[in-house]
Write a structure and sequence with these properties.
- Helix content is about 45%, strand content about 20%.
- The protein has 18 helices and 20 strands.
Length: about 625
């Protein structure tokens, strides 16, 4: 990532912190980049600046961003062997070490939707029994995501969410309500949900057990150290810390010691105050030995020491020096009785003035660690110890002891370097493991989203299949109706053909009219006589036809027939389609309907009169 992109991401995180109080600056940068990039892609923006503008315009986007960054991947009894170890090996001893009526306080930070907190509750209830659990246990479940906390407060989970819960525990601790499993209300009251930001907020204190699983891996190493110091403060002296399978305490060994490293269970290391005792040297001879003999023995024993030693009196005058000191610092018998400040020893390998003066005011042993000293071409490292010599609680002198720790210092430096390299390797390995676990949980979250989408698509597909079946059924019904219509049309056509045959056989030109005098049937003889086809005259008014028949003369007969007359006959002068005049006999008969409301139309039959004035 370029410096500009880095700066812009920091600006986005500062904007979120300023507007909503969420501090994501301590989270691992690679994880933050992936999650923010995912959300930016979903809303269709390409730069952090554009996303800041989008957040300013759409306040509800903050919740979507937080839900994307805070990967709420959790489950009941995640990594089950660790919970079994906690129930069988850790909790019995932890409970036994406390008074029978003492409260048991548990903190579950990063609880997400509550599965881990209720897992702790089930384990403790199994160890203590339900009644003791209700009386003594308080479980504080915290998270930075309010939506996840609300889900945890409801304590209602879908069947797929409670699949990891053993059947015995499911029947004991859950009630089936509608389509969800709800944690028992009497035990639920012991689980307290609240918002807590591990980076900014104060920890919950006086804890017996702290369960923080797969949460630290989202933070950078510096932020992890800060959180672990808070965890150390929160736990009682023998409190237990339980981490996730992907989390280790490589650089925090001074805070926690492993109880079971494989299952990531640790115990707090209490802070101890180191006190150093003041040692006094006695110089009086004993057992009746003479002063001379005592001094001789003392000098002989003093010379046998492996470390260089120099004894000064109260006036800082050199009184004694063993053989090692005389050889290394070049002291001679002539130096006995000389003040220490006249000797090179006073200045090398370290100046003693300030230390000797401090020894006069505070009569306790002093140590000067890791003093470098160049002997010829060889570099050495010394530890110098100054011990006050007391006589009847009065400062009588000082003994200087020089211990060569060159080899130990070298080994310590090599050990520290190896330890640093090992810690660095472990940190890199841990970072890789945490990154892998983070990626796995992100993939799990994405997989859950894809499963949800797949279920929605499957539901939509089922609806489409149902609609398709309904359409297919409707189509089959329409095909059946079409078949019936085709059958009836064929029958009607047959009937029409039959009727046409009858009318044609009669040798009469026939026109069937409805009540409005519109032509409904026009047979072949009518077409032959007047020269108009059925298509030209059907649905046309009979009185408006342009044919050789004086249709206006038909009007009275037609009206009378429609009004109830039995029929009318008349002969009129007409002209056929060839232009020949002839006498046309017109017979108008009523067309009876299916009801008693009179004629529904009229039948007009036209024929040539054989003895008329004009014959064909």
């Amino acid at each position: 990532m370029s410096p500009r992109t880095q700066t812009t991401l920091n600006e986005l995180l500062e904007f979120v912190k300023e507007r909503r109080g969420f501090d994501f600056t301590g989270y691992k940068r690679s994880s933050i980049e992936r999650r923010v990039a995912k959300r930016m892609g979903e809303v269709g923006v390409e730069s952090y600046e554009a996303y800041i503008d989008y957040l300013e315009l759409h306040a509800d986007e903050f919740a979507n961003l937080f839900n994307t960054i805070l990967i709420n991947v959790t489950s009941f009894f995640r990594d089950e062997p660790a919970w079994e170890y906690l129930a069988e090996e850790v909790l019995p001893g932890l409970v036994a070490a406390r008074p029978p009526d003492a409260p048991l306080r548990v903190w579950v930070p990063g609880c997400a939707s509550g599965e881990e907190a209720y897992t702790v509750a089930m384990v403790l209830a199994r160890v203590l029994g339900d009644e003791v659990f209700r009386e003594r246990v308080k479980i504080y479940a915290t998270d930075a995501d309010e939506e996840a906390l609300d889900e945890g407060r409801h304590a209602a989970y879908l069947p797929r969410q409670v699949e990891p819960v053993p059947q015995e525990a499911l029947e004991r601790f859950f009630e089936r309500i509608d389509q969800r499993y709800v944690f028992r209300k009497d035990l639920r009251r012991c689980v307290i949900f609240g918002r807590n930001d591990l980076v900014q907020d104060a920890p919950i204190s006086h804890l017996d057990l702290l369960v923080c699983r797969n949460t630290l891996m989202y933070f950078m190493a510096e932020t992890q150290s800060q959180i672990l110091r808070r965890f150390h403060f929160a736990l009682d002296d023998d409190g237990v810390l339980m981490l996730g399978k992907s989390e280790m305490l490589i650089t925090r060994s001074e805070l926690f010691t492993p109880v079971d490293l494989k299952r990531r269970v640790f115990r707090k290391v209490p802070r101890a105050t180191m006190r150093k005792a003041i040692r006094a040297l006695a110089s009086d001879p004993q057992d009746g030995a003479s002063l001379t003999v005592a001094e001789s023995l003392r000098d002989a024993a003093f010379d046998l020491g492996d470390s260089p030693k120099v004894v000064l009196d109260a006036e800082r005058v050199r009184v004694m020096a063993n053989e090692q000191a005389r050889r290394i610092f070049g002291l001679t018998p002539m130096d006995i009785g000389r003040p220490i400040n006249d000797l090179e020893l006073f200045y090398r390998p370290v100046e003693l003035r300030g230390h000797l003066e401090l020894l006069m005011t505070e009569p306790r042993a002093l140590e000067i660690k890791s003093v470098p000293w160049l002997v010829g071409d060889e570099s050495r490292v010394l530890d110098i110890r100054l011990v006050p010599l007391l006589s009847e609680d009065v400062h009588a002198g000082t003994m200087l002891t020089y211990t060569d720790v060159t080899e130990a210092h070298r080994l310590r430096a090599e050990l520290e370097a190896s330890k640093r390299e090992l810690e660095h390797a472990y940190e890199e390995l841990q970072a890789t493991v945490e990154e892998l676990e983070t990626t796995n949980e992100e993939l799990q979250s994405t997989n859950e989203e894809l499963e949800t989408t797949n279920e929605e698509l499957q539901s939509t597909n089922e609806e489409l299949e149902t609609m398709n079946e309904e359409l297919q059924s409707s189509n089959e019904e329409l095909e059946t109706m079409n078949d019936e219509l085709r059958h009836r049309s064929a029958e009607i056509n047959d009937m029409n053909s039959f009727l046409e045959t009858i009318l044609t056989t009669m040798g009469l030109a026939v026109a069937v009219l409805d009540k409005d005098l519109r032509v409904q049937i026009w047979n072949g003889q009518a077409r032959e006589l007047w020269g108009l086809s059925p298509d030209e005259v059907e649905d046309q008014n009979m009185l408006a036809l342009d044919i050789g028949l004086p249709v206006e003369l038909l009007t009275p007969a037609l009206r009378a027939t429609l009004n109830g007359a039995d029929g009318e006959e008349l002969v009129v002068q007409a002209t056929n389609r060839r232009g020949r005049e002839f006498d046309c006999k017109i017979t108008v008969l009523p067309l009876q309907g299916r009801s008693d409301n009179g004629a529904s139309g009229a039948i007009v039959m036209m024929e040539t009169v054989a003895d008329g004035a004009a014959r064909r």
